[in-house]
TrEMBL record:
One of its GO terms (biological process) is phosphatidylinositol phosphate biosynthetic process. GO terms for molecular function: 3'(2'),5'-bisphosphate nucleotidase activity; inositol-1,4-bisphosphate 1-phosphatase activity; metal ion binding. CDD domains: IPPase. This is 3'(2'),5'-bisphosphate nucleotidase 1. The keyword Transmembrane does not apply. Belongs to the inositol monophosphatase superfamily.
Length: 305
């Protein structure tokens, strides 16, 4: 019944399979050894894995959904890829699920797919491969609605590498076991490679019992989902719509929040500015607005309201 499923269900089911294939490409580039690093800016590396994974994802999704706008971190991509990189199948298990009523009638032109082919590139080049994720975020009009977070280097109990987490607002999440972070503690997960004085000032305002410095927006949201941290803070511009669309959708499908540091959700339509100028604050199982008001007003004014 694949062809009759609502567009959003088909985009999600195709993105699950495509993110897995991209994860395989990311492992292959590392195995082969030459990362082909290019510096796009300060602390902003790109590797052959970013480029190849993006080509795989954009070519596959464009072929399947020609009427859908797709925006990838690595810019315009050559859609001419080998058959091995062209993912045609859909995740059948996902397709069996029932589509939430609110998205059932969404048309191809209502969607924007935000692709971060490799989130945590700095960490990938430094050997912290468990921080790496593939992010495919699905926006309907302005809102982040669905997301895939694939971890290429996650070791399954049976030894298999890779796991795929999904979330769709109104339906829920899959691919991991949700738990809340320990009560009585306050653990913050934050950047390890893009800190600055402004961000540090915000971090200092929290009575944290522990600060985890890890790479990638996807990995930090996974830490929230698995109860390793209570909040994710990045109080400065730097991450972009492709970093937050999928994590926001998955976290919010689980009852959490991912907003700017003023507590406002970002917009994900095709015309928005790519940079998330007002930073990121995410939490699950917490009073999110209380966290917003812990961030010093000076910091919130510096990034803009
Ligand atoms: N200053 C920056 N320049 C470029 N990318 C950034 C910057 N800050 C954050 N990012 C992106 O957001 C992700 C999360 O940031 P951090 O790990 O510092 O918390 C990074 O892995 C990176 O995504 P990517 O690795 O896909 O380029
Ligand atoms: Mg990058
Ligand atoms: Mg990223
Ligand atoms: Mg990236």
């Amino acid at each position: 019944m694949a062809s009759t499923a609502p567009v959003i269900m088909r985009i999600m089911a195709s993105s699950i399979q495509t993110a897995k294939r991209a994860g395989g490409i990311i492992r292959d580039v590392l195995k082969q050894g030459d990362l082909g690093i290019v510096d796009k800016g300060k602390n902003d590396p790109q590797t052959e894995a970013d480029r190849s994974a993006q080509r795989c994802i954009i070519a596959s999704l464009t072929k399947k959904f020609p009427g859908v706008k797709i925006i990838g971190e690595e810019g315009g991509s050559d859609l001419n890829v080998c058959d091995d990189w062209l993912v045609e199948d859909l995740d059948e298990e996902f397709l069996q699920k029932s589509c939430p009523a609110e998205w059932r009638d969404a048309k191809p032109e209502d969607f924007v797919i935000w692709v971060d082919p490799l989130d945590g590139t700095a960490e990938y080049t430094q050997g912290y491969v468990e921080h790496v994720t593939v992010l495919i975020g699905i926006a309907v009009k302005d809102a982040a609605v669905g997301g895939i977070i694939h971890q290429p280097f996650y070791q399954q109990p049976d030894g298999e590498l890779g796991r795929t987490i999904w979330g769709l607002k109104g339906l829920g999440t899959g691919g991991f076991t949700h738990s809340l972070a320990p009560p009585g503690e306050f653990i913050i997960t934050t950047t390890r490679s893009h800190s600055n004085a402004l961000h540090q000032q915000a971090l200092n305002a929290f009575p944290a019992t522990k600060i985890l410095k890890v790479g990638g927006a996807g990995f930090k949201v996974l830490q929230l989902l698995e109860g390793k941290a209570h909040a994710y803070l990045f109080a400065t511009p730097g991450c972009k719509k492709w970093d937050t669309c999928a994590p926001e959708a998955v976290l919010e499908a689980q009852g959490g929040f991912l907003t700017d540091i003023n507590g406002k959700n970002y917009s994900y339509n095709a015309d928005v500015e790519h940079v998330n100028r007002q930073g990121v604050l995410a939490s699950v199982g917490e009073n999110h607005s209380e966290l917003v008001y812990k961030i010093p007003r000076k910091v919130r004014e510096a990034v803009g309201v």
